[in-house]
Design brief:
- InterPro entries: Beta-barrel_OMP, OMP/PagP_B-barrel.
- It comes from Psychrobacter fozii.
- This is Opacity protein-like surface antigen.
- Keywords: Signal.
- The chain is mainly β.
- The protein has a single domain (about 1-179), classed as Porin (Beta Barrel), CATH 2.40.160.20.
- It has one helix at about 1-20, and strands spanning about 35-45, 55-65, 70-80, 80-85, 85-100, 110-125, 130-150, 155-165, 170-179.
- An 8-stranded antiparallel beta barrel has the order 1-2-3-5-6-7-8-9.
- It is elongated and about 55 Å long.
- The two termini are about 35 Å apart.
Length: about 180
Amino acid sequence: MKTLQKTLMAVVAGSLLSMGAQAAGSYGNGYTGQPYVGAKVGQFDLDTNNADDPTAYGVYAGYNFDPNFGLEAEYVGSDDADYRGGDIDAKSYGAYGTYRHAFADTGLYAKGKLGVARTEIEATNTDLGGFYDGEDNDTSLAGGVGLGYSVTPNFNVEAEYDMLGSDTDLMTVGANIKF
């Protein structure tokens, strides 16, 4: 099942990039759709007792249909964090609709996204002489808010806070390149 999910996310990301590469239409205001790819780093906030929050790292790809609306797909994984004498790690796969609001000509913009995310949390521990190996997988409505800054017309930096389900949040900073 995990291989199928990774394959589906790769297909979605590839489709978004392919759409962007083929886009040549104008939207009446001189704007032509624009694909982008990026990377992010941050921290998962897991609602789990006695667990450190794992460091998150991820990649994402998207397509802006106009200056405000777009689509985005992402994968975010983590390192192993301490959990009751063992480890805990998290992964998230998501697909979102996005909205950006630019603040005049400052380069600063607000970003919102809403979609679906699959979050997988895996824990192992050997506390009290026993052994536990378990998973908590959840597919749910997900969303986030963030602030971004356009360093150049084709390079942005962003900070985001995402809610991935009932017990998982994600805080990241990242950068993306537009084509």
